[in-house]
Amino acid sequence: MDAFIQLDRVEKVFEVRKKAGFLKRERRQVRAVDSISFTVARGEMVGYIGPNGAGKSTTIKMLTGILTPSAGRLRVAGIDPSRERTRLAHRIGVVFGQRTTLWWDLPLIDSYKLMHRMYRIPDARYRDNLDRCVELLELGGLLDVPVRQLSLGQRMRGDIAAALLHEPEVLYLDEPTIGLDVISKAKVRGFLRELNDERGTTVLLTTHDLQDIEQLCSRVMVIDHGRLMYDGALAGLHEVGESERTLVVDLERELPPIDAAPAWVVRVEGPRQWLAFPAAESAAPLVARIAAEYPLVDLSVREPDIEAVIAKMYAGSAPGQAEKAVS
Ligand SMILES: Nc1ncnc2c1ncn2[C@@H]1O[C@H](COP(=O)(O)OP(=O)(O)OP(=O)(O)O)[C@@H](O)[C@H]1O
Ligand SMILES: [Mg+2]
Question: Where does the record place the ABC transporter domain (predicted)?
Fold first, then answer.
């Protein structure tokens, strides 16, 4: 396996100073990343998830060289990011969903022209890459618009294009769909899938949206309190987390709780009933059975969100079991 990204017992400890009375300050250490090891092969698309404050952004910042690890060994494309940040910058692309890398007051195209020069991208390559991004991310009508006037979804697409103009081999995305509507999310996901399929770009994706992961990543890593809790297929995460999906059923009238094992009714409100079922089970036979046996008006399936999966994963795991989840 060509290990393109390699982390070996990487740690990041922040020293924070807290006011503890008049003149007195207390020093405290925050172990944001706590001995994390993993490798990502070239061309893989991996989800990196976990609750708020888990250490995801800190990991990504170390992978770009913005932050230096407190301990451990880290390599991206054979490069030590914090030592050779500039050299690495030519080979990686980064999108921080919470913060734009575009020039706020300039038309979008001017930011791209600046990047063209900053990265010394050959003219033909720059034009090809820009044309492709403009087409696939539907930026045509937006190039002359100042970034501050773009909607969040438009800005995010603009940011993704900016990260790709120099054709990086790896793309780090830190919450690229945060705050986007359904259509914008679909556009961004479709684009990332194509990028990975066609160019074999390695992608590390941080998100709170489990659908991003379901639609894009065959592999997911879960971190919490700076530790890697799980590394494997998404389906396996559902098993480890014993997570549940929810079926929301609208009946023609109020009826006794629906009887449809392995689902069980968790809530009833008039003609509407909520049924939970194990996330690893297929919804199709369950839906078919309920439709055949009950007077159905409407029905929808709700996916468990990542926070719930993780919460379950902890509640359900005996000490040591979480460790076992990491192979
Ligand atoms: N520069 C910093 N100085 C001190 N502490 C920091 C710094 N950056 C991050 N931390 C702390 O490190 C921990 C991990 O933060 P990080 O931003 O990596 O979390 P995250 O997983 O990206 O969370 P979120 O989902 O909220 O974005 C948190 O406790 C955070 O407060
Ligand atoms: Mg973050």
Answer: 5-250
- Residues with Cβ < 8 Å from 147, sequence gap 6 or more? 100, 102, 103, 104, 105, 106, 107, 108, 111, 155, 158
Predicted model pTM: 0.78
Q: Which ligand 1 atom minimizes the distance to the CA of 55?
A: 18
In tens, the pLDDT along 200-238 reads 999 999 988 888 888 899 899 999 899 998 999 887 776
Strands (E), 102-152: none
Cβ pair 273, 251 in contact under 8 A? yes
**The pair of three-digit structure tokens given for residue 105, joined into one six-digit string:** 């007051």
Question: How many angstroms separate the CA atoms of 232 and 222, rounded?
Answer: 9
Tokens found for residue 185: 């999310």
* Nearest C-alpha neighbor of 149 from the set 97, 108, 99: 108
Compute, in angstroms, the gap from residue 242 CA to the centroid of ligand 2: 25
Q: Which residue's CA is the nearest one to ligand 1's atom 17?
A: 57
Cα of 224 vs centre of ligand 2, distance in Å, is 12
Distance CA 210, CA 32 (A): 23
Q: Ligand 2 mean position to 264 CA, how many Å?
A: 35
